[in-house]
Specification:
76% helix, mainly alpha, cell membrane, 0% strand
């Protein structure tokens, strides 16, 4: 089932697939930046020039990167599954399980999108910032909300694909 949904390269679904793949690659670049920053911080600590706020930026970067991977995992079928329970299932039941998983992912993404948007507004209204760099917390919510919106779209795409399999 992996990459089944990414295979459609034409039309709106192909465009969305490429967008989701690009978003995941950007998340990978954020993760790489966090690793490089932490490497620089460790080396800098040895020579008396630490990287100020490395813990804060690690926290934000890892969170943003993790959310960026969610739509790709949904679309490519790379989410964690319990194959031991479904190894003997017929294609019909596998499609039913896939449909149910897509519905749960869609509900999950809609719920998180709603609540994370409320969190963004709270963080912005109360002007929360990180302690050292004074980085506004609400800025980290923007790529997370984009990730959740893409997760909802990916869930709709996998739901439609599973429905077609039935």
């Amino acid at each position: 089932m992996a990459d089944m949904h990414l295979a459609s390269g034409t039309g709106p679904s192909g465009l969305v697939s490429r967008l989701i793949t690009g978003w995941a690659l950007l998340g990978g670049l954020v993760l790489l930046a966090v690793v490089l920053m932490n490497t620089w911080s460790v080396i800098g600590n040895q020579f008396g020039t630490p990287f100020p706020g490395d813990f804060e930026m690690t926290e934000v970067g890892i969170c943003v990167a993790a959310f960026a991977f969610l739509p790709y995992c949904q679309l490519s079928g790379a989410n964690v599954t319990a194959d031991i329970f479904t190894s003997g299932a017929s294609p019909f039941w596998l499609a039913i399980f896939s449909l149910a998983a897509s519905v749960v992912a869609l509900a999950f993404s809609a719920l998180l999108l709603w609540r994370m948007y409320a969190g963004l507004l709270d963080q912005k209204n109360y002007e929360y910032t990180t302690a050292i760099l004074q980085f506004p917390h609400w800025l980290a919510f923007i790529p997370i909300l984009i990730s959740l919106a893409l997760l909802a779209v990916a869930s709709i795409m996998t739901l439609a694909a599973s429905a077609r399999q039935l």
